[in-house]
Amino acid sequence: xxxxxxxxxxPISGTKKKINVRxxxxxxxxxxxxxxxxLDTRIDGDYGWLKEKILREEVTxxxxxxxxxxxxxxxxxxxxxxxxxxxxxxxxxNGLALAAGIPASAAKAxxxxxxxxxxxxxxxxxxxxxxxxxxxxxSDAQIAHDFxxxxxxxxxxxxxxxxxxxxxxxxxxxxxETKERTFDTKAFFICVANSNQFGNHVTIxxxxxxxxxxxxxxxxxxxxxxxxxxxxxHQIAGINTLQEINNYRKSRSITYFQxxxxxxxxxxxxxxxxxxxxxxxxxxxxxxxxxxAFRLLQP
Length: 299
Hints:
By secondary structure, the chain is α+β, with helices and mostly antiparallel strands. The chain has helices at 18-31, 48-57, 68-77, 95-99, 106-115, 139-148, 155-168, 228-236; strands at 5-9, 36-40, 61-66, 84-89, 118-126, 129-131, 134-138, 172-177, 182-193, 197-199, 202-203, 215-221, 254-259, 261-266, 272-274, 277-279, 284-297. The longest helix has 14 residues, at 18-31.
């Protein structure tokens, strides 16, 4: 079957010059003699029209040129559709692309796309929303909210906001419910990850896999801010081991376990983000893994 590609370019994602990326896409795809079309991503995240276009025009590949938020919005609309998804990383963090081994270079990412090797990866639901990579509650979500409001994005902006919120952050009260047990905690933030990446090569959930039928939950519990960086570095470096949730100990500074289903009760109005995009305040967050959610072009 002849491949037919649709590229979706996020005109505001990340910091790269979009004109150069667009030119690279056109030149490289024409050289491969593949039929293609370039469209802009939707700021409202509505891709219902794309499903109809795929079926009507027999599109085989949808290539998202953007960040994790764009990938998640498109993938959510294409669940149960026979189409392959590719990524040209153009976001600020590009966590999913990094976890999948997709290079930051547009030319190198396109080589993977043209090679055509795809495999299934999981996603998970957050109430009625879909995530391909990660959601978070607490101080990291507040950073995501503030980051989204900035005109100039990129790693420097994110690091500046992170430093500011380190001094401003406060713990929030949560109840975590799993099939195995229920417990209460006060935490600076909770991260639920299908990918090991926060983005920018920061691995918040080192044991996470894109296709193991589980998501990882990382709870950064209340502790002295003097020791917080030390324990976060331990988590990022993979020193903290996965816990069996049945052996949960409240004394641990960081709780790290895996599950396929969980509910988090948000008692203190902690902010929420999904794949780096700010979400409205949510009191009850139901999480459920979606195995083999979509096919991703990978090395």
